[in-house]
Amino acid sequence: xxxxxxxxxxxxxxxxxxxxxxxxxxxxxxxxxxxxxxxxxxxxxxxxxxxxxxxxxxxxxxxxxxxxxxxxxxxxxxxxxxxxxxxxxxxxxxxxxxxxxxxxxxxxxxxxxxxxxxxxxxxxxxxxxxxxxxxxxxxxxxxxxxxxxxxxxxxxxxxxxxxxxxxxxxxxxxxxxxxxxxxxxxxxxxxxxxxxxxxxxxxxxxxxxxxxxxxxxxxxxxxxxxxxxxxxxxxxxxxxxxxxxxxxxxxxxxxxxxxxxxxxxxxxxxxxxxxxxxxxxxxxxxxxxxxxxxxxxxxxxxxxxxxxxxxxxxxxxxxxxxxxxxxxxxxxxxxxxxxxxxxxxxxxxxxxxxxxxxxxxxxxxxxxxxxxxxxxxxx
Length: 379
Fold this sequence. Notes:
mainly beta, AttH-like fold, 2 domains, 14-stranded mixed beta sheet, 3 helices, 55% strand
């Protein structure tokens, strides 16, 4: 496995191994308006039940054609307001819907794209898509300007023959974000604009084999406080003889000092499992010399068979000084659910796959639309 902060690695890697994946992740939050967004572009949608079904059939020799990442490109866009999901759009496309910059840094999926301007050190994002299952149309544009970056690289090859099968690129640990989002409903005049002025984050992941064959689980989170910006990452590998990998990246903008701490001890408490949610710790802590992090996953923003996204409360102790009650974002991932046919069926209910509409997708979005109407959400 590789970990890097080298922004040049953000370009498309042209992975073509069966089960390979690559994604570009952006999130932003406006605390004053209590709104947050998550935007992801995929080459080889790592969490696609359609992709994994094709992969399993190919591995079992029930299909002769190997699954290519470009056949399972994807785009997702989530909006959360006042702690509630407003939009959860995931679309997976056929050949031709996605385009990846062959030279620079940029991706397009249908009418949704991001580009990077190295002169201005700025990421420009435009979104423009229909969401037929919810009778919505969304459009908007956003600017991500990094406030700082780290300089760090690490490789581990504890799994013989599987070195560097996954790479995590922490490109932008913090950014200033500005943008506008327009959400239009089915009725005339059912249209609203949301301005976003806040802080954001961007990273990039890629791998040359299915995630469930390499990872057991991982925790990730980030928090911005008055003094510290912090990102943590903890991953357990499928091969249990491999030591879990943990990393803390801390930026003290009061002192102008950055730290990268390896090998933090991770503890999980109040472990819980839902019917459609993986076993996870509702509280975790990371401890290393001179630093302690407590994370309380107090509010679930999004959940699925293999994934949880939280609004979390952080407690930081740095050099003996404790800071309590700082809000941030965290995630948990257990890709083993991607192997379950039942969980794949459930996951498919949330994905619009071009040319393969499922009954579960129609029913899931029908009931979500009715729920929105009953609650009279004003878009």
